[in-house]
Design brief:
Elements (H helix, E strand, L loop, with lengths): L17 E4 L6 E4 L9 E7 L4 E4 L4 E10 L3 E6 L11 E5 L4 E6 L8 E9 L2 E12 L7 H11 L28 H9 L5 H8 L4 H19 L3 E12 L5 E9 L6 E5 L2 E2 L12 E6 L2 E6 L8 E7 L2 E8 L4 E3 L4 E4 L3 E8 L7 E4 L2 E2 L6 E5 L5 E6 L8 E7 L2 E10 L16 E3 L5 H35 L3 H8 L6 H9 L20 E4 L13 E6 L18 E2 L2 E3 L7 E5 L3 E2 L1 E4 L14 E3 L25 E2 L14 E8 L15 E2 L2 E3 L7 E5 L3 E2 L3 E2 L17 E2 L17 E3 L1 E4 L18 E3 L17 E3 L4 E4 L4 E7 L6 E4 L2 E2 L6 E6 L2 E6 L8 E7 L2 E10 L6 H8 L2 E4 L4 E6 L7 E6 L2 E2 L6 E5 L3 E6 L8 E9 L2 E12 L6 E9 L4 E6 L11 E8 L6 E7 L4 E4 L7 E10 L2 E2 L3 E2 ...
Parallel strand pairs: 4-10, 20-27, 21-28, 29-46, 30-44, 30-45, 31-42, 32-40, 32-43, 33-41, 34-39, 35-37, 35-38, 36-38, 38-40, 46-47, 49-56, 57-64, 83-90
Antiparallel strand pairs: 1-2, 2-10, 3-5, 5-8, 6-9, 7-8, 9-10, 11-12, 12-16, 13-14, 13-17, 15-16, 17-18, 19-21, 21-25, 22-23, 22-26, 24-25, 26-27, 48-50, 50-54, 51-52, 51-55, 53-54, 55-56, 58-62, 59-60, 59-63, 61-62, 63-64, 65-66, 66-69, 67-68, 67-70, 70-71, 70-72, 70-73, 74-75, 75-78, 76-77, ...
Helix pairs in contact: 5-7
């Protein structure tokens, strides 16, 4: 029963809640009061939790973000359970992100439920629900038996120090044939399930069922060990190579004790590491939150190996680091523009993905790049689609620390029209040039061979073990009966962890006993096993083997050791007596060859009897000994009896003359007791003592073993085999291992008795039935989840170990036969059959028999299907042109768990690049963009659900112009008047038939191609009758279909009409002039041209002391003139030249060679090329003066500064043809005239460069204004401090007046410190600015004082005449008012008025009582009382009342008008 979580509601008793709507769907809000106080709010979710479906054992969590004032509290709950267990449920809050998190580490199936999240404050609460689904993995057994078994076994593994199964290679013991590497299990425990098959194939393991069973057992043990040190172990990521060249693996866990030590191992050897990735340590282990990241740098091939991370002595993670190499590396690719380029390689081991780089940038699958991997994952390809010139560069493939790279060279398409993009090409360039498939197949065969060898070793070991166990030799049988580890059965158990029966083929049922071990019966002659006795045993008891092949029963005694019977002469073992012994007791040997009996005594040592005169040993008395008691040997060859004492050693019976061993007395033994062997070949019986070891019966002459007594044993008890082939019964003891019955002659197994917590199986009779196993009933084969198809029958079967009744239930309701259901019982097999499955048959079925039960879920569904009309419509082929998009659509019925896949020619298509896949509930669409001709093929859609799959097929046909005709072009006939050519049809007709061929011709030496005509598609030859004898022609052929013309097929060489007529040799070439880069030649035409016009010449050169003539121009690029400049020469080398005349037939005889000419310049006086004579540099910057020159021989260069040698800190850099003077950080003192002097043997030259180092000038001093004449003002200023340092400094004067309110330059390039301003009017204010300017620019200005109406005036004398003072001051008045305007929208507008007044009034413009003087949309001026306003483009909002206001100290005047804007 689940405990329901109680969450108290926020409303008080009797309080009414008001429902409110949230902006987030699915959130329920309850507000406690009707009106919220100002600034307060109820809780709400801005991000609600999202429903989650997760696999069992993973980390599940919900996140939510809430708002509200005051800050809400968040509470989590579930519908059917409690969330108070902190080990399973953790609530967290991150104040930085304001996220509330509800975490469930290692989620279990019982945690699947509907969860609620409440956010509450004093004004209300918000609630949201979210569903958690948990996918259960595998079948879960009840935990109670496991816990009981642990208590019963007193499992001391957890107390002892763990020893790693992976040891260093130096300490690794020699591995036996077929033994599985411990790395196999360590890798499986840290790997994902999807990697199980790969790891099994790598280590040669084929028994997957056994592997999974063993792995689950080991995982449970490992998880228990890990739980002592860590919790929440998750996110295990295997080792991989990073883009920065390092390798790393990572995992997440929480240490229970932060002081726990963490160790790293490589191949079993501990490796040091640092906490941070520094320069000194190769290995690093960093912690980021809960994540631990192990990394190593500077990777080398020896870094490959098996890595493990341990916390204290418990392994947490294991991973294998492998290095792969390139068998075939990528090669350089030369591609034409708009063509696809392919890089491909082959690696030595399968790898799912390589890292591809282009121009140092990682590449991913997309529109530009296709990354392809072969099915065996050995061949990897990178396709660069639609290559452009910008794509050229170096491309690389990286596999771990191994990499290879190659160039991509993209050649521009010269045939493309200018200004237009060339057409996309359907061809691919590149590849490795080798048969990659062959290389990959050889490598795959090599890997498969290694894998098969490992499998064969395991198989051979198993077969050898089986043969050894089935051997009939008495000695081998005795050894196996004694339970020695060297036996074949033990070897097989170490290899595949399963027990191998000695001679039987049918396994029987085992009885139910109190045992956690294993008890197996022997095999009788009839093939059946004898019953294994139900004794209390934690060890192993097995019977011996008699001469007839049967095994004697092993007695059940209380023993911590091993008890085995001896072997009699007839091949049987004597019974080993059940004594309390911790040692080993063996009897002596009598004269007849049998050892004397070893008595059952209490001994912790070793006691041996003396030797009598007859050769036998004296009996060892039954005393308390810490050693070993063995009998002596009598004269007849037998040993004397060893007395029955309490022994911690080994007690074995002696061997009598008849070959049998004497009985080993039944003492208390923790060791091994074995019976003797009698003369008939049988062993004496091993008595039923208290033993924790192994008791096996002897083998009698009839081939059977003596019975192993039913004692309390912690080992294994198995019955022997009697003469009839059946093993004798193994006594029913309490065993901690497995008890299995023997098999009788009729094929059945004898019952195995006893109480067992391990595995009990019954025997099988000859008629195929199972013998009943004694004890409590059990389920040997239970129910599991199945899928059933609607309308088809389904059957569920439960097998019991005994014949008992049971009942069937469906969803808790009992089931009976009828209504399409049949319930049958055949002995211990119960069946439930559904004749025709329906939807109502789905549910949880349960079988109950007493206290035992098993359950499984049946799910009924349908295989997906298509509508016939839709299927017929889809099957019609889709035909598109190249470059167009192809679309496919297939409707289907909506279903759950339906997977839709699209395939092209059997290869699954993925969404991305040129492929677009849309999945809707009732249909799916496939879109292929920009189809190419190569996309033609079969398109298939597959619908798949757990019940089956269905497919539909269509065809995609991409039409294109045909491929070029197949060459080469063959010349059928050539005469002086006819040329006949022949070709083959194109390989690809572009999807539609070729209609005709078009033939064009080009005469050699001409660039024009002329169309000769066309021929039908059936004819692949053409006769050209319009040819001239001796001339050569080239032909090209096009194939045409309804889509257009193909690329051309062109003749490889020109075809001559008739026979070849070559010209005579030209005259001997003459050298006109030479230089170090060029030699000019001239020659005369040939005297005899053989009657064929000469179209040009070919020039050849030969270097001195060589025999090879090199052509300087091709025959198809003749030199038309008799002069030629040879520029392909090396300075200082000597050459000779010859010339051949070229006509229509080709190049004729060569002329005699010219005289040797040396490529060097003639002597030349130095001269400078286009130098600059003036240079200005800002102070502090570097000065670079570059002077180019020509001279031969090279001159000596000298630099001077003002005719003096330059300072040592000034650098001079001389190269061929240029000299450069460099001043690193210039100062004003570096200003000077620099002179370069170039001198050689022919002469010398000089050149002067003026360098001026300056800076922006400082501003001039104070400015003064003075008026001496009416209308003129003298402006003077103090010179700039830089005037004395810079003779190129001058001044600029700017003027500003109150009328225009604009600054304008009135004087420039003034070298004086005064300026006279003209036209200075009274009543207007003036300002002046003075700037200093040089080659660097202007200085900051010096501002003058204001020059106004009553300031700085020169008084005018009246020459003694008195005058009456007149005042001109008056208030403002409007002389000309504003006019009404109605301009159209978007037109310009001028609005003016005239104002006067003294002093000059200040004029303001208003629009709808808003001042617009500072509005940039209106340009306002005031010139001598004429006030104007200008609007560039009238807008609608410019309409309204405009008002002009003029104000001075004496009054105010205004006028207004209206502006109406027309549409």
């Amino acid at each position: 029963m689940f405990k329901r979580t109680k969450v108290t509601d926020g409303t008080a008793t009797g309080q009414v809640g008001f429902r409110k709507k949230s902006k987030v769907p699915g959130v329920m809000i309850t507000q406690y009061i009707e009106k919220l106080p100002e600034g307060k709010s109820h809780p709400d979710f801005t991000r609600k939790p999202i429903a989650l479906t997760i696999q069992e054992g993973k980390f599940a969590f919900f996140k939510a973000i809430v708002t509200g004032d005051p800050k809400p509290t968040v509470v989590w709950s579930r519908n059917n359970g409690d969330v108070s267990d902190p080990a399973r449920y953790q609530s967290k809050y991150d104040p930085n992100s304001n996220e509330h998190t509800f975490e469930m580490p290692h989620v279990k199936p019982d945690q699947a439920d509907t969860y609620k999240c409440f956010a509450k404050n004093e004004y209300g609460q918000a609630m949201v629900t979210v569903v958690l689904n948990v996918i259960e993995v595998g079948f879960k057994m009840t935990k109670a038996p496991q816990q009981q078994a642990e208590v019963a076994n007193c499992n001391f593994k957890k107390v002892l120090k763990r020893r790693s199964k992976v040891v260093p290679k130096a300490e690794e013991p020699e591995k036996k044939e077929g033994e599985i590497d411990p790395k196999f299990w360590e890798l499986l425990m840290s790997a994902d399930k999807k990697d199980y098959e790969r790891i099994c194939a790598e280590f040669g393991v084929t028994d997957f069922r056994w592997m999974l069973k063993k792995l689950n057992e080991m995982k449970r043990e490992r998880e228990e060990e890990q739980a002592e040190f860590v919790k929440n172990l998750s996110d295990l990521k295997p080792i991989h190579i990073n883009a920065d060249g390092t390798a790393s693996f990572e995992l997440e866990f929480d240490l229970l004790d932060p002081s726990s030590s963490i160790y790293l191992y490589k191949d079993g050897e501990m490796i040091p590491y640092t906490k941070e990735l520094g320069d000194k340590m190769k290995h690093c282990l960093r912690k980021v939150g809960r994540k631990y990241i192990f990394s190593m740098r500077d990777l080398m091939p020896e870094d490959a190996g098996f890595y493990q991370l341990d916390v204290e002595d418990v392994n947490m993670f294991s991973t294998d680091f492998k290095m792969v190499d390139f068998l075939v590396k990528i090669q350089e690719v030369k591609a034409m523009e708009r063509e696809d380029a392919v890089f491909e390689c082959v690696i030595s081991a399968p790898l799912s993905k390589l890292m591809w780089f282009g121009k140092n940038m990682p590449l991913e699958q997309g529109d530009k790049y296709d990354i392809e991997v072969s099915e065996d994952k050995l061949i990897h390809r990178l396709v660069v689609k639609d290559c452009m010139v910008v794509d050229k560069g170096i491309y690389a493939a990286c596999a771990g620390i191994k990499s290879c790279n190659a160039w991509l060279v993209v050649e521009a398409d010269k045939g493309a029209p200018k200004g237009k993009k060339s057409a996309r090409k359907t061809t691919r360039a590149g590849g490795s040039g080798t048969d990659l498939q062959k290389v990959a197949q050889e490598q795959q065969q090599k890997l498969d061979k290694e894998r098969e060898e490992r499998k064969e070793k395991i198989k051979a070991a198993r077969e050898a073990a089986a043969e050894a166990a089935a051997a009939e030799e008495p000695e081998k049988t005795a050894d196996s009966g004694a339970g020695k580890d060297k036996g074949a059965a033990v070897e097989v158990e170490r290899i595949d962890k399963t027990s191998v029966a000695a001679t039987t083929t049918v396994a029987g049922d085992s009885g139910s006993g109190h045992s956690a071990g294993k008890a197996s019966g022997g095999a009788k002659q009839d093939g059946s096993h004898a019953d294994a006795g139900g004794g209390h045993s934690a060890g192993k008891a097995s019977g011996g083997a008699r001469k007839d092949g049967s095994i004697a029963d092993a007695g059940g005694g209380h023993s911590a050791g091993k008890a085995s019977g001896g072997a009699k002469q007839d091949g049987s073992h004597a019974d080993a007596g059940g004594g309390h012994s911790a040692g080993k007791a063996s009897g002596g040997a009598k004269q007849d060859g049998s050892p004397a009996d070893a008595g059952g005594g209490h001994s912790a040592g070793k006691a041996s009897g003396g030797a009598k005169q007859d050769g036998s040993h004296a009996d060892a008395g039954g005393g308390h000994s810490a050693g070993k008691a063995s009998g002596g040997a009598k004269q007849d060859g037998s040993h004397a009896d060893a007395g029955g004492g309490h022994s911690a050693g080994k007690a074995s019976g002696g061997a009598k003359q008849d070959g049998s061993h004497a009985d080993a007395g039944g003492g208390h033994s923790a060791g091994k007791a074995s019976g003797g062997a009698k003369q008939d070949g049988s062993h004496a019986d091993a008595g039923g003592g208290h033993s924790a070891g192994k008791a096996s019966g002897g083998a009698k002459q009839d081939g059977s073993h003596a019975d192993a007594g039913g004692g309390h044993s912690a080992g294994k008890a198995s019955g022997g085999a009697k003469q009839d082939g059946s093993p004798a019964d193994a006594g029913g003891g309490h065993s901690a291992e497995e008890a299995s019955g023997g098999s009788r002659q009729d094929g059945s197994l004898a019952d195995a008795g006893g109480h067992s917590a391990g595995k009990a199986s019954g025997g099988a009779k000859q008629d195929g039935s199972l013998a009943d196993a004694g004890g409590e009933p059990g389920i040997t084969s239970g129910l599991s989840d199945i899928l059933a198809t609607r309308g088809q029958p389904a059957e569920l079967t439960v097998k019991m170990n005994t014949d008992c009744d049971g009942a069937w239930f469906k969803d808790g309701e009992p089931l009976k036969s009828g209504g399409g259901i049949s319930i049958t019982k055949d002995a211990n097999i119960h069946k439930l059959t559904i004749h025709s499955c329906r939807d109502t048959d789905s549910g949880l079925l349960r079988f109950v028999s007493g206290d035992l039960s098993t359950e499984g879920r049946i799910t009924v569904g349908d295989v997906p299907e298509f509508d016939e009309d839709d299927l017929h419509k889809f099957s019609k082929p889709v035909i598109v042109r190249v470059g167009q998009n192809a679309a496919f659509k297939m409707p289907f019925q909506p279903q759950e768990s339906l997977t839709v896949s699209w395939f092209k020619d059997g290869t699954e298509l993925k969404d991305g690049g040129g492929v677009k896949i849309v999945r809707e509930p009732n249909h799916s669409r496939l879109l292929l963009r920009d189809c190419l001709r190569s996309d033609t093929g079969e398109i298939k859609i597959q619908l798949k659900n757990p019940f089956g799959a269905v497919e539909a097929t269509s065809q995609l046909i991409v039409l294109d112009r045909p491929g070029p005709p197949e060459g080469p072009v063959e010349t059928v006939e050539t005469t002086s008047s006819v040329i006949e050519i022949k070709w083959n049809p194109p390989k690809d007709d572009g999807g539609s038939a070729v209609t005709n061929y078009i033939i064009e011709r080009q005469e050699r030496g001409h660039s024009l191609w002329t169309k000769l005509g066309d021929v039908s598609a059936e004819k692949t030859s053409f006769r050209d009758r319009n040819v001239t004898h001796g001339k050569k022609y080239s032909y090209r052929i096009y194939a045409e279909n309804p889509q257009g013309l193909s690329d051309s097929l062109e003749t490889a060489d020109s075809i001559m009409a008739g026979i070849m007529i070559l010209s005579g040799p030209p005259g001997k070439p003459k050298v006109v002039s030479t230089s170090k880069t060029c030699i000019n030649l001239t020659w005369t035409p040939p005297e005899d041209d053989k009657g064929v016009p000469i179209i040009g010449y070919q020039v050849e050169k030969r270097k001195k002391d060589t025999n090879q003539w090199l052509a300087l121009n091709a025959i198809n690029e003749p030199i038309e003139d008799v002069n030629y400049a040879v520029k392909d020469v090396t300075e200082g080398a000597e050459y000779e030249f010859r010339v051949s005349a070229i006509n229509e037939s080709g190049a004729g005889d060569a002329s005699p060679p010219s005289a040797m000419a040396c490529a060097k310049n003639p002597n030349m006086r130095p001269c400078f090329k286009d130098p600059e004579d003036f240079l200005v540099v800002r102070a502090g910057n570097s000065v670079r003066v570059k002077i180019s020159y020509e001279a031969e021989p090279p001159p000596h260069i000298t630099w001077l500064k003002d005719d003096e040698p330059i300072a040592p800190w000034i650098n001079v850099i001389n190269t061929e043809g240029m000299s450069q003077l460099v001043i690193p950080s210039s100062k004003r003192s570096d200003s000077a005239i620099y002179t370069i002097k170039a001198k050689n043997s022919v002469g010398e030259a000089f050149f002067d460069v003026e360098v001026r180092v300056t800076d922006e000038p400082k501003c001039p001093g104070p400015v003064e204004l003075e008026q001496t004449v009416y209308g003129k003002v003298a402006v003077s200023w103090v010179p700039s401090p830089d005037q004395e340092l810079d003779d190129r400094l001058y001044y600029v004067v700017s003027q500003h007046d109150s009328n225009t309110r604009m600054w304008k330059t009135v004087a420039d390039r003034l070298f004086a410190n005064t300026y006279t301003a003209h036209n200075i009017l009274p009543g207007i204010e003036y300002h002046f600015r003075v700037y200093a300017k040089n080659d660097m620019g202007l200085s900051d200005p010096s501002q003058s004082p204001t020059w106004g109406a009553n300031s700085n005036r020169v008084p005018i004398s009246s020459n003694g005449v008195s005058s009456m003072e007149i005042s001109f001051e008056r208030p403002p008045s409007i002389l000309v008012p504003l006019k009404v305007h109605t301009p159209p929208k978007g037109y310009q507008l001028y609005m003016t008025c005239a104002v006067r007044g003294c002093p000059t009034p200040n004029v303001s413009w208003y629009l709808n009582n808003t001042c617009i003087n500072s509005d940039k949309n209106y340009y306002i001026t005031n010139s001598c009382g004429v006030c104007s306003m200008y609007i560039l483009r009238v807008r609608e909002n410019d309409g309204g009342e405009y008002r002009v206001v003029a104000v001075n100290s004496l009054g105010k005047a205004e006028c207004s008008t209206k502006l109406t804007v027309r549409d």
